[in-house]
Design a protein that fits this description.
Blueprint: H1 2-8, H2 16-49, H3 55-63, H4 66-79, H5 89-126, H6 132-159, H7 164-173, H8 175-181, H9 183-198, E1 206-209, E2 212-219, E3 223-228, E4 233-237, H10 238-243, E5 246-248, E6 255-263, H11 269-284, E7 289-301, E8 306-314, H12 320-337, E9 342-343
Antiparallel strand pairs: 1-2, 1-5, 2-3, 3-4, 6-8, 6-9, 7-8
Helix pairs in contact: 2-3, 2-4, 3-5, 4-5, 5-6, 11-12
């Protein structure tokens, strides 16, 4: 009798047998959902891949995750009709159906947006010469996804009983405070728009921005990321970039290198002339140096040495470090063969070669 009494006693409006029947229906729904997922992946995707258009692939990809939830959602919707719940269980069961449906729709919308952007928008951007659209497409994708998630959140709050109108109104009242608090964020966003419109650099360019130098890796809504020449990732606010002096190293047709050679004051005028000629000849003989823009001069009387200035332009920018190394080695060999003694010059790049 006690067991029968327990089984017949209602808990939150429903008896234990009703709850057992409800969970049995949910379990069957889970099995159905897994079966639908299996059939989806094994059958429908193979059929879609056999077609020429990619739109059906995008749609099926968008439904790939949410379709597994379909069986559970339907099971809860059917199972709750077997119960006679009272509050607050009635509201919980209603939310258990409404919220997963909203999440599944938002999830599908986000995956659909990502698929369209990846297949169509990014493919179009890759075929254009400008890299502006390459930077804009990810930004548009992120903004769209944020909008989808935000709308889904508002709908979920409304479905579980929150006064969405009051929430929106409160956001409006606090809008001024938020605007003042987010001035830096707004400045960064406008800085990003300025960068995208003026295009001082593109993703992949080597640049100098203020005290930072490196290769641009990502242009975002608020910040720009570059990988400096030491391999470190540097994140710079776009508002800072908009106000900074920018040098686009990748835009250089050639790169000028200036080297100072310090000749001791014991050097004769003839040896100075010889040193000037040897420096220019050595630099001009290296592959990757623009021979027509290579020259050397007797530049200055320093505190400890007479300075010869050598200017040359590296035309092979991908190898500019190797080219500079080769030039310095060639100058050292030429001076050593000529028995020219080169002393150290304070603040200058100098080469010392002892006489044989």
């Amino acid at each position: 009798m006690a067991a029968a009494s327990i089984l017949s006693e209602p808990y939150f409006g429903s008896t234990i047998p009703q709850y057992l029947l409800f969970f049995a229906v949910v379990a069957i729904g889970a099995i159905v959902g897994r079966t639908l997922g299996y059939l989806y992946h094994r059958r429908l995707k193979q059929t879609a891949q056999a077609t020429e258009t990619e739109l059906d692939d995008i749609i099926l990809h968008a439904l790939g995750g949410p379709v597994v939830l379909l069986g559970v959602i339907l099971a809860i919707a059917v199972g709750r009709t077997l119960l006679t719940p009272v509050e607050p269980l009635r509201s919980v069961l209603a939310a258990a159906v409404d919220v997963p449906v909203i999440v599944a729709i938002a999830w599908s919308a986000v995956r659909l947006t990502d698929g369209i952007v990846e297949v169509y928008a990014m493919e179009y951007a890759d075929h254009t010469e400008s890299k502006l659209d390459d930077a804009l497409v990810p930004i548009v994708s992120r903004v769209t996804n944020v909008a989808i998630v935000s709308i889904a959140g508002i709908v979920i709050l409304d479905s579980i009983g929150y006064d969405v109108t009051a929430i929106i109104a409160s956001l409006g009242i606090g809008g001024v405070a938020v605007a003042f608090a987010s001035r830096k964020t707004v400045a960064d966003v406008f800085g990003g728009a300025h960068i995208l419109s003026t295009k001082p650099f593109q993703v992949g360019d080597a640049v100098e921005i203020g005290d930072n130098a490196g290769t641009i890796e990502e242009l975002g809504i608020r910040t720009t990321r570059l990988r400096d020449f030491d391999g470190r990732l540097v994140t710079i606010p776009n508002s800072t970039i908009a106000d900074a002096e920018i040098r686009n190293i990748s835009s250089e047709p050639t790169r000028r290198v200036t080297t100072y050679l310090g000749l001791s004051y014991d050097t004769t005028p003839a040896e100075v002339e010889q040193a000037i000629d040897l420096a220019a000849e050595a630099a001009g003989s290296i592959d990757g140096v623009d021979r027509d823009q290579t020259d050397a001069w007797f530049w200055d009387y320093g505190e400890a040495t007479m300075q010869v200035r050598l200017d040359y332009y590296v035309s092979d920018l991908d190898r500019w470090k190797d080219v500079r190394d080769a030039v310095n080695r060639a100058i050292g060999h030429r001076f050593q063969e000529a028995a020219l003694e080169v002393g150290l010059s304070p603040g200058a790049v100098s080469i010392s070669a002892a006489a044989p």
